[in-house]
Amino acid sequence: MPAPEASQDTASLVKRLAGPSVTKAGLAKDQTEINQIIAEASKGSKFYDNEKRKDKDLTERIAGILKQRGDLLRNADIPKIERTVDHMIADLEAHRDLTQIIVHVDMDAFYANVEMLDNPSLAGKPFGVGHLHGVLTTASYEARKYGARSGMPGFIAKKLCPDLIFVDMHFKRYSEMSDVIMAIFKQYDPNMYPAGCDEGYLNITKYCEEHSLSAENCVQEMRERVRRETNLTVSAGIAPNKMLAKICSDKNKPNGQFHLPFDRNAIVSFMHDLSIRKIPGIGRVNERLLESIGIKTCGDIYTYRATLCLMDKYFGLQFLLRTHLGIASNSVQPVQREERKSIGAERTFSPLGDKEQILKKLEEVALELESDMQKSGWAGRTLTLKYKLDTYQVFTRAKSFDRWISKKDDLFSTGKELLMHEWPVKLRLIGLRMTKLKDLRATEDKGIKRFFSAAGPSSPGKRQKIERREDLESEGELDAADEAREDYESMPGYEEHEFEEAGLEIEIPDDLATGASSSGQALRPASHAKPPSFLSHTKPASSSSKPVSTKPRSSAHKPRSAAAPKEGVRSCICPICGKIMDTDNSGLNAHVDFCLSRGAILEAQVQSLNPQERKGKKR
Ligand code: TTP
Ligand code: MG
Questions:
Q1: Which residue stretches does the UniProt record annotate as biased composition, category Acidic residues (predicted)?
Q2: Where are the domains of the chain?
Q3: Is the pTM for the entire model greater than 0.85?
Q4: What is the CA(138)–ligand 1 centre distance, in A?
Q5: How far is the CA of 243 from the centre of ligand 2 (A)?
Q6: Residues 297, 300, 301, 302, CA torsion sign
Q7: What's the CA angle centered on 401, arms 395 and 406, to 5 degrees?
Q8: Residue 109, ligand 1, Cβ within 6 A
Q9: pLDDT per position as a tens digit, 459-502
Q10: In a mutational test of the pocket of ligand 1, which residue from 105, 138, 167, 250 has the highest number of ligand atoms less than 8 Å from its CB?
Q11: Which CATH number, 3.90.190.10, 3.30.1490.100, 3.90.25.10, 3.90.1700.10, labels domain 337-618?
Q12: What pairing do the DSSP bridges indicate for beta strands 378-389 and 427-439?
């Protein structure tokens, strides 16, 4: 009798369909039954088909990785490699810094609790913020008991929890409350880093010294203050660095705090049994890749150090060793305006094929982007159109200018031009994102420096450059993947930790990167350790004629811009992400640019919050 179809594929697909927020606080430990219900409920949808395709793709990539592993291990001197890695570990240990008290604060069920302030009858009830036909932004802890959570389609949440109440979103309120809590946090560390509308990092070393307070008492006091002044609860993690503090803030959620001892052995044993999935930056895809070589916990990283060393380019040995040791950045600083890399807006809607209707959405997006750019004082030189087909596949097309643009008419006409190259399409999301920004508020631009800037003010005589090469596939709407904040002061939002879900290589959350941040509130590449890049190297150079394609996929929709063969195409490696691609010089340069502003692409992800539309501006 043939074996039942309970293959790894099936298991991994079920896990994949469970979405990215399976590690959210308040969920039941065993999610097996819930995951089955989600998988059953998703069946038959285009979303399901898309996830299945991606899962299959990943399975193939893993097979490739495992084959390579076999080849590499066959001739390797494992004890020697292990000794080398042990030296690296000793070196990392020598630089461990336990002197700074870092705190990660994260409001509990933020949107939900704000809603509860305004509607106390919701207290103790299972409710989600979002729509039955859209995606939940969050769920009350009561609802989480049933498996309902952020990023989950409303109808699935309702299946899991038939009594679930749906509550509308009120971004203005979240933003107001966010201002209040951030003002409180700033009193404990004026240089705090707001990592989202409801979370942030603080260095309270100085405050504790000056007020003769223990870290524990200081955080207790701060949390009580938040509670007193807002009636909202916040959880906190206290640790010697940002990664640990973030992991710890989740330990005693909701309304709790966790203090990790500032001791090397305590930290290493804390990390030892911790699931790799708890590490900010490791989501579903990388979890699966790591598991494929035997790594489930941070302790396993040490066991498989030789394999990881041999496969450094896939897995990012430095990053994983630091993770295993619980070593990360402890530098906390406020966001610098000049570090911003992009600004964008998007809309999600029920699938549309009508040109007029789609262009109307695009016009709204352009208007919103113009308004945001003007309000916050930015202009830009590269505009990227993002669109998601009704099959959930995501593509982007970009066009560069040699003048600064910010006006709606420019934004709309460029977006339209790019879109018309792809026509006809049936879409469920459309977005515009501006990169290569110029800070209109920067004083230095008023001075001599502007004469040296690469692109001056509008120079209509010059040629505009069209870059229509990037196909970025991102995850579907079940993902919590979303844009990072860009203008923290004005918009609510949240931090994204599922970076690999964009179908690109993993990226360390900006807020965990060492030292100076490099792209404002947007996602930034890590500077402290080479992040794992499992996905970027696993495909052989495509023989496709696309100058740059991040994800060559079989697709019913063949973007036309990708079809034209180019001269001078060769196999190149991107110096930033290491991706191998078939392209020419200009394609490579454009990819490098794109890669540098990859945060922008990740930011551009958004899930629909209601069936009509949604402003993609959670920051
Ligand atoms: P989170 O802090 O991730 O979640 P939370 O505050 O609701 O719950 P927890 O107690 O686990 O911290 O996100 C903050 C807010 O950001 C959240 O209330 C709603 C919004 N959000 C989304 O809109 N979509 C998402 O996928 C996530 C994760 C959050
Ligand atoms: Mg929160």
A1: 472-486
A2: 337-618
A3: no
A4: 5
A5: 16
A6: positive
A7: 85
A8: yes
A9: 333 334 444 333 323 332 222 223 322 222 211 111 222 222 22
A10: 138
A11: 3.30.1490.100
A12: antiparallel
